[in-house]
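note to self — DONT lose this again. spent like an hour looking for the file last time. sequence + predicted structure for the chain T wanted, 238 res
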Amino acid sequence: VNAEKRPGMMCQRKIFNVCFDNAAAILDHHECNRDNAQGCLRCHIMEPVICCDIHNPPEFASYDTPNPKAPQAAQHSCLPKYMKDKSDLDLENALLDWHEEKTAAVYSWACLFDNGPMVMTNSTLDHIVDCTHHHKIQTPQDLKRETTWADSNLYASEVLSLIERHAALHKSLYISTPLRQLSASVSASVSASTLPTLPAKRRATKCSTCGQEGHNAHNHLCWKHLSNVSPENKENIS
């Protein structure tokens, strides 16, 4: 109840007195022994010598229960999505067969028939295949870190043997091969071919009727165009 942090409390016993309203309780210890001023010693509620862990902490030191924080588990790898190839499918089938055989050997065939494989979960089996594809499981420590499988210590050697037997080595996609040196003539031709070529200069349009540049004979800008000539002069235009 955090009595030490509540203003007005600061005592573990005071909380019960307030909760049950003990101050308003009627004491009847004098009914048993009226001759004694303190009444009946068995019925009289006496104040304890030791109050609580707030007022007398040394008296309660032996009852402390330390609660250390559990060590943080190692983070497993974040795997990208991928397409399973033949080696991944072969490993998955081998793990499924081993899973059924191990369940039958440990828990009997009847348990396998009634409940299915029980040595590991399906998500653990799938994660083993994914980690194997990305080369994340090489040792028993890797298997435990990546899967957090409770029985990894018992069956790590068997699972690793299946991984070594069915997992294929994936070659790197990048190969560092030095480029072949080009000869001087080839490099010169390549550099010349890569230079940008300027567009050819367009020839100016010249009218065949009047001989001026900038338009052709069908353009209305030509002064000899039929639209610019009077009807009486059309016959004189050759």
